[in-house]
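hey so i finally got around to running both of the ones u sent me last week. sorry it took forever, my laptop kept dying halfway thru and i had to restart like 3 times lol. anyway pasting them below in the order u listed, first the sequence line then the structure token line for each. didnt double check formatting much so if smth looks off just lmk and ill redo it

first one:
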Amino acid sequence: MDARLNLFGSSIGRTFSQHMLAAGQVMSQSTVPLTTLELVRLRASQINGCGFCGDMHTKEAVAAGESHARLHLVATWREATVFTEAERAALELTEEGTRIADAAGGVPDEVWAKAAHHFTEEELAALVFNIAFINAANRVNVMVRQPAGDYEVGRFG
């Protein structure tokens, strides 16, 4: 399967992609564990049906030290006992932020309060932007039908 559009094939695509990738690197400067950021990216990608991002963030999570067992349980994190309370709060915030159109009023206060209990304001900012960022990346890759499976760790810096 080939992508409908080569995202790096035009000057607009190259420039936007470079800026988007640079913006994506900002979250790794936060004190939120990289494994948590990758779990968030993976969960949003699963919800949005983005195979490319699912492939990428599964591999990046393993490279960051995440276990295969936990990665296999991300889609069913509510029933899984392998996630910390902080990770669970981040995953719930991810689901609510990704499905924002499904809920009148956006992310419920109780979901936000759980996340705020486990993360500082700086970390919450990183999580919010991480969720927004991965949702944007998912939408781009789903629209162009970016194929999944051949991602190599570190490909985008």
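and the second one:
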Amino acid sequence: MLDRQLHLISNGKLSLQRFAEIAGQIHSYVTAIHIREKQKSARELMSGVTLLEEQGVPLSKIVINDRVDVAVVSRVSSVQLAYHSLDAQLVKRTFPNIRIGCSVHSLEEALSMEQKQVDYVFYGHVYETDSKPGLPGRGLRELEVITQKLQIPVIAIGGIKPSNIKEVLNAGASGIAVMSGLLEAENPLEAVRQYHHLLK
């Protein structure tokens, strides 16, 4: 079986410079690197792409969250859409060469996004996570149902650690998305190697 996907997502806490430095160290082990910075302007996001490039991260691995305009102008490979974003089908029709991921939180949303011809979905949050304090994780049962119903890859997100990767993969996930597990690790390179090994 092919290695499963590993997505790194910025957390909005680190400076883009520091995020780019970590991404530069570990990108060879990572499938995709997401700039997810809801408070930053288009100009700042463009700067983030430049910083990643300067650290050796290829454009083919960079994903812009929500901002289709920035993704297109910066010539990155992918955009990650949310519920409030532009319609995925419209984006796909207008920019057929861009890969589109979409964040979903239920089977209904996942099926809807597959019909809109997105390339993959993020499903979560699977476990409790510090990025969503007070909200219980959605668990593995619906993740398993979604992976069985969809033909496109389902990437699990939310509280995923080396200790629970196996059960996430057993539920059918095509990969995982990680923030704190890599960005807050004492040694990000050592941490990413552990994730990469467990995803093989």
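quick thing i noticed on the 2nd:
The chain has one domain: 5-199.
anyway thats it, ttyl
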